[in-house]
Design brief:
alpha/beta, Aspartate Aminotransferase, domain 1, Aspartate Aminotransferase, domain 2, two-stranded parallel sheet, 36% helix, globular
Length: 356
Amino acid sequence: MHRQERDARAGAAVQPPVYLDYQATTPVDERVLQAMLPWFREHFGNPHSTGYSQGRDAAAAIETARAQVAALVGGTAAGVVFTSGGTEANNLALHGALAAGPADKRHMITAATEHGSILEICRGLADEGYDVTVLPVRENGLIDPAVLADAIREDTSLVSIMAVNNEIGAIQPLEEIGALCAQHSVLFHTDAAQAAGKIPLDVEAARIDLLSIAGHKIYGPKGIGALYRRTQPPLPLEPLIRGGGQEQGLRGGTLPTPLCVGLGAACAIAGDEMAAEAARLLSLRQQLLDGICGRLAGVHVNGDLEHRIPGNLNLSFEGVAGADLLFVLGDLALSTGSACASGHQEPSHVLRALEL
């Protein structure tokens, strides 16, 4: 019988598992929650009804949040488009840019280790007649820029490579990718849901045209994200959700003021505390890795330890199935792969791409 079941049947107090799955989601920071609360009741105005003070106050709060999001990625407030999360931002980036692009450029490039939302979008685009090239990665999880350069064609419109992998934490060489794309006049999109607030990002230095963010990955609320769109020169996008012309005509619907405020506050806190938090997490990760490897043989780190965000550790244990390991570690909240794929029992597509 599993230990938790024994404790429950014996009437013992069952403690919640120790949570170690922060790349799946994070709790809302108390400071973020406090920033959000007034906008649910005291300041409930519609931010698009600016003919009176309640609406203007909400609109001003959203613009403050927009500037906070932009500051975290080195951009300008005008480039921030609020979405319901990272998946919608990814859809708007890829569908929107390709639909608005030249009719004779129907080729895009991505990588085999991308988040499931990107890979699903690419499958849909292929069904619509777009040509999608999926690049392999090296055994450390990083793409080879030379392979990317060879894959770019005359009809290539867009390259989508995530900044940080959601399973193995690998940090891709964004500036090198951006330079290649700029050299060939190809748009560069990066899914930065796992990178924002964890590593420095600069859309100008890396020549990133489109960048996706998810609030709940950085101690913000669920249900809110953003797409950063290059503003100089303006990058045309076709909207996915049409309505009242909100968000520069790129996303119809009333903006959720509390969620926007929460995302902005989370971005501001992450920007202020990123360096100190990175050092703290790196120390904890090393302690954990040393402790495991000092007690067990046959432990392998999946991915690159150097080019990796500090808070990520992805391990393989020789001769042990991931599901079996999770079963006996019931007092630890862990994952064997992406939260978006938790309903599937297939091996991680990221680890398969690393040939592990």
